[in-house]
Amino acid sequence: MSFSRRKFLLNAGLTGLALGSRPLFSLPDTTPVTVKTPSGALRGERAGGALQFRGIPFAEPPIGPLRFRPPVPIKPWNSERDATRFGPSPMQPGEAGMEHSEDCLYLNIWVPDGKGPFPVYVWIHGGGFTGGHAFESMYDGSEITQEGVLCISVAYRLGVFGFLDLAPLLGADYAGSANNALRDLMAALKWIQDNIAAFSGDPTRVTIGGESAGAKLTDILMGVPTAKPLFHQMISESGGGERVWTRAQSQSVTHGFADEWHSLTGNDPSTLLTAPADTLIKAQRQFIAAWPQHFPLRCQIDGGLVPLHPTESIAAGSSRGKRLLIGTNRDESALFIGPHPQRDPVAADLGNLLPDNFTKVYKRYREVYPQMTEEQLRIRAVSAEEYWIPSLRVADAHVKGGGDAWMYRLDFSETGGFLRGYAFHSLDVRLVWNRPSPLASNAVAEAALAHQMHQTWTAFLRGDAPSAPGVPAWPEYNPPTRSTMVFDTQNHVEEKPQEAELRLWDGIL
After folding, report:
1. 332 included as an active-site residue
2. 1-241+303-313 — its CATH code?
3. Which of 136, 216, 302, 477 has its Cβ near the most Cβ atoms within 10 Å?
């Protein structure tokens, strides 16, 4: 989620993501507990029926000479380390009063009571590659531990610190820096493989997952061959594998940022290594505002870590043998372009295509949905461009490459409020984490669906088929039938949903 999108969410009064929430002290009814890991001893807390460990470093701080460099494994510590506070927020714009730092490579662990080994869920937060935190209150893992699943939230470098190719400016030593965030996540997963057994976690049953940018990073990691041993199944909520550049595109972004850097500071690129982090963020904001395409800071198909486009690599078997739960919300983009968009989509509204290519598809939407208003058509087409079609391409590639998949679509919407009638982006998060809004106009129905989706997701996390009371039998996804679970007030399965709309995108995305 870009900064402008996060601002829109706040202005709309939508608190589903609990943006910026960060407990700074222990909950009142806690007791200390110590776990000895291969990295060193950690002192956490027992609270709310779970063990909680916060702010655990999984890599050396990427500061000083390690700025823009791949993560370096954390050195073991000798004395007991306090793990009762979250680590700092990654550097990002627009959050006065919050502690931000380049020293941000920390993870948080919630361990169920009882005897393990427990399956492990590693949550990757969203935020458009430029924002977000691993410590949002929405992502508190205590609820998931009640289902016998160990939960971990993990941070990674954002913006120019994690997604900018510095090699054209600083030399070959910085090759691959556009994929530093991916490397951060892989470093966290490696730490988990080496250490999670000390928390009664099962390193042979690790699920990675996320929503929005977190889902996109999950899908991209599916296409990284060297990441294959680090996880065993995936959950992708509103993702897709399209948020990558070719090397040429990535380097074009690099030179655009360098121009902005010089315009802002008057300095040459070498000063990027020592400049204050806040100055880099200021340049980043100005650069993103000026760049002609949305989300210019992306991972790179570098021929090494990311050898091919993620869907090509997935189709070739990079995620063979793994299980995938994947899906989108019907009206994702209503959150961003508003429930009543008064103009056709432009570059700033699109996640993957330039307007000319998008227009080729959009001008045919009236043929498929003659009953829709112009506002509804705009929301439906933009939702498809950024989320639905890219997620379908990942699911198709995964099945082709030898994996198992289950596809869903969230159609549930609230009956009142700013976005009434729309299954908007991020609504799934509070349902899956079983934190429905008590203020929703149809709060009883939302709470019932949240319980069902939470149970379905945690069944998958435990290694079972995704299922729950009130959810019909969920067939596996395959391209010929595209069986899709539709979550709504009446859950049901659809075959070949939105088939005519899907055909519009052939050859475009």
Report:
1. yes
2. 3.40.50.1820
3. 216
Residue 132: per-residue pLDDT: 97
Of the listed ranges 15-29, 154-168, 177-191, 265-279, the least confidently predicted one is: 15-29
Catalytic residue among 2, 89, 212, 318: 212
Closest of 228, 234, 64, 214 to residue 154, by C-alpha: 214
Separation CA 258–CA 280 (nearest Å): 11
Which residues are within 8 A (CB) of 49 and not within 5 positions of it... i.e. 6 or more apart?
Answer: 112, 113, 142, 145, 146
Q: Which of 45, 102, 260, 332 is catalytic?
A: 332
Instruction: List for the chain the helix, strand, coil content (%; round to 5).
Output: 40, 15, 45
List 425, 426, 437, 446, catalytic entry = 425
Tokens 């890219």: give the residue.
390
User: For 428, phi and psi rounded to 5 degrees?
Assistant: -60, -30
CA distances 166 to 70, 286, 300, Å, are 12, 18, 12
Highest mean pLDDT among 12-16, 94-98, 291-295: 291-295
CB atoms within 10 A of CB 95: 15
pTM: 0.95
> What pLDDT is recorded for position 237?
98
Structure tokens at 193: 């493989």
Q: How far is CA 111 from CA 146, 149, 267, 293, in A?
A: 9, 8, 48, 42
